[in-house]
Amino acid sequence: MNMKELRELGKQKFGKACRMCPICDGRVCAGEIPGAGGVGTGQAFRNNIIALTEVKLRQRIIHSVHTPSTKFTLWGKTLTMPILAAPIGGIAFNWNNYIAEKMYADAVINGCKNVGSLGMVGDGKLPEIYQDGLHCIEAVGGWGIPTIKPRPNDQIIKLAKQAEKIGAIAIAIDVDAAALINMTVSGQKVGPKTYEELLELKNNISLPIIIKGVMEVEDAVVCAKAGIDAIVVSNHGGRVLDHTPGTAEVLPEIAAAVGDKMTIFVDGGIRTGFDVLKMLALGADAVLLGRPVTQAGAGGAEGISCLMNHMREELEAAMIMTGCQDLSSIGRHILYTK
Ligand SMILES: Cc1cc2nc3c(=O)[nH]c(=O)nc-3n(C[C@H](O)[C@H](O)[C@H](O)COP(=O)(O)O)c2cc1C
User: Fold this and answer.
1) Which of 88, 98, 307 to mutate to test the pocket of ligand 1 (most atoms within 8 A of CB)?
2) C-alpha 272 – ligand 1 centre gap (Å)
3) What are the C-alpha distances in Å from 268 to residues 70, 150, 221, 287, 313?
4) Domains assigned to the chain
5) Which of 66, 120, 156, 209 could crosslink 87 through cysteines, CB 3.0-4.6 Å?
6) Whose CA is nearest to atom 14 of ligand 1?
7) Relative to the CA of 124, which ligand 1 atom is closest?
8) From atom 21 of ligand 1, which residue's Cα is the shortest distance away?
9) What is the value of pTM for the model shown?
10) Which ligand 1 atom lies nearest to the CA of residue 49?
11) 175 CA distance to ligand 1 centroid (A)?
């Protein structure tokens, strides 16, 4: 399977839910939720793409980097790349029913694991969504990260204990789903978290905790103070608040404030290995891919492995072309600013 075949498969399977645009930038699908789009005008989704487009790389060719290493270490585990699959809940509902929820979770977990990457799975209005994701992670010996919606703390702690039991690598909480309508209309309470609530989670959960949806330095600082292990700089792919900046715009100040205290993930609009390199140069330790993985899911686990390998190869080429031997040698110096 290759990227061209994957695109063709997607075009056959997705219908109008995702038109497989040459560049997935949120213009054609603006406002389409359910669907692939960003909320409202879709500007927050587009801002992710625009922000990355505005970052320029310095081309370096006089050096000795021939075989760069993309190895990434996370809480004692070694990954072949700093590229993970983002959690996606409601794939059937949003993406023309092209795949059942559990089959998608299975494809993500296995497609990532088979190439040394790591997949995250989601939570939703139906309890089965979280449980299906957990079963898929359990089946591969814990190689995955379940994501829990920002439910009341007692519920989060209960779900996190289940993740601990199956040996998951960490748990994530997408606090940016604090006002998610599909949870509230189905009677599922979600909401933002205070410092005290984060502290309570940290004191009651033994796995590393990732808070997803941080877009402001102040929020990142509170997460760090509460002992949270990692954050995802994310606007949920532009699906929760219209008119936010792009994640690449806010990442540098957040990384400068808390990068030495916790692991920093970022997502939003990352479509190529060049984008991955830009995000690492702006201060991220690793990135998550959302829509590209949902599209690659058209080819099942094999399709997702194909995408992940393709992204890693592009990242390696970009590291050669900027003179970076390994992830620790990537920094602001490879970015072009006048
Ligand atoms: C259809 C769809 C469903 C999503 N569901 C979830 C979810 O259940 N939990 C979550 O944390 N993020 C969810 N996200 C957000 C992604 O995890 C990720 O933050 C976002 O897609 C990254 O942007 P990108 O798609 O431009 O790569 C969803 C995104 C999409 C497109």
Assistant:
1) 88
2) 17
3) 21, 20, 21, 9, 20
4) 3-334 (3.20.20.70)
5) 120
6) 88
7) 8
8) 290
9) 0.98
10) 26
11) 12
In the chain, the percentage of residues whose pLDDT exceeds 70 is: 100
Q: Does 127 score more than 90 pLDDT?
A: no
Task: Kindly state the tokens that stand for 79.
Answer: 């990954």
| H helical segments located in the chain | 3-14, 43-53, 91-94, 101-113, 127-139, 153-165, 181-184, 195-204, 217-225, 247-258, 273-281, 291-296, 300-322
pLDDT of residue 125: 84
Ligand 1, atom 4, residue with closest C-alpha: 88
Could you report the per-residue pLDDT of 211-242, keeping only the tens digit for each? Answer: 999 999 999 999 999 999 999 999 999 999 99
Place of tokens 């990227």: 3
Q: How remote is the C-alpha of 23 from its chain's centroid? A: 18
Report long-range pairs for 180-184 (Cβ below 8 Å, ≥24 apart): 180/149, 180/240, 182/90, 182/124, 182/125, 183/124, 183/125, 183/149
Ligand 1 pocket, mutate which of 239, 244, 247, 293 (most atoms under 8 A from CB): 239
For residue range 253-267, what is the model confidence (pLDDT) as tens digits? 999 999 999 999 999
Task: Name every protein residue with a CB atom under 6 angstroms from any ligand 1 atom.
Answer: 36, 48, 86-90, 94, 122, 147, 174, 212, 234, 236-237, 239, 267-270, 289-291
CB < 8 Å & 24+ apart, contacts of 267-270: 267/86, 267/232, 267/233, 267/234, 267/237, 268/48, 268/233, 268/234, 268/235, 268/237, 268/238, 269/25, 269/45, 269/48, 269/49, 269/51, 269/52, 269/237, 270/52
Task: Tell me if 138 sits within 8 A of 113, measured CB to CB.
Answer: no
